[in-house]
Write a structure and sequence with these properties.
Length: 186
């Protein structure tokens, strides 16, 4: 009798576990990039992007500032298609006919939660511009960009990162134009 009851309990338990998994699909990993590139020009500047070793990763980073700001967390099902610096280097291609070489040092690219339901994305980088022929430093500038996300999750982070990347590209191009204009004036 005990064996029969134990068997029935085991079968009931197994049936319950199986029923819970029917119709529900476990989350599948999704790879993201920074969106399609709409324009390709052959005359882009020579550009390299460097980053600390911890940013050479496919994981999407976030911090819970309200809980423990020193802990880096990662989204489990959402990842970058390639290491982040490679995606950024491809996206930040600058179109110019100036004899410059551009080096970008990425220092921060993460989502930060101020509260459970409020997040923003942060992009920090330093751009160094060198003369192409003698590699002399012409100028250096830091860009610190931040923007609230549309939602406090991976989708909001990715949308925010795309916007910040475009803002960085526009800002860098505008700044390089001022350097070009100064070169023509001298």
């Amino acid at each position: 009798m005990k064996r029969l009851i134990s068997g029935l309990i085991a079968i009931s338990l197994l049936a319950t576990i199986c029923a819970c998994s029917i119709g529900s699909k476990p989350g599948l990993p999704v790879s993201h990039d920074l969106g399609p590139i709409t324009e390709q020009h052959e005359d882009g500047l020579a550009l390299t992007l460097n980053a600390p070793v911890w940013l050479w990763d496919e994981r999407i980073r976030y911090r819970l500032l309200y809980q423990d700001a020193t802990v880096i967390r990662y989204y489990h099902l959402d990842r970058w298609e390639a290491p982040l610096p490679a995606l950024l280097e491809r996206r930040l291609t600058i179109n110019s006919e100036q004899p410059f070489t551009v080096q970008i040092q990425l220092t921060q690219f993460e989502q930060q939660f101020s509260t459970l339901n409020q997040a923003h994305v942060v992009l920090r980088l330093t751009v160094s511009v060198f003369a192409a022929k003698d590699y002399r430093l012409i100028a250096k500038r830091s860009f610190n960009l931040s923007q609230n996300t549309i939602s406090p999750d991976a989708a909001g982070a990715i949308a925010g990162f795309i916007t910040l990347t475009e803002q960085a590209k526009t800002g860098i191009q505008a700044w390089l134009k001022t350097l070009s204009d100064k070169r023509h004036e001298s």
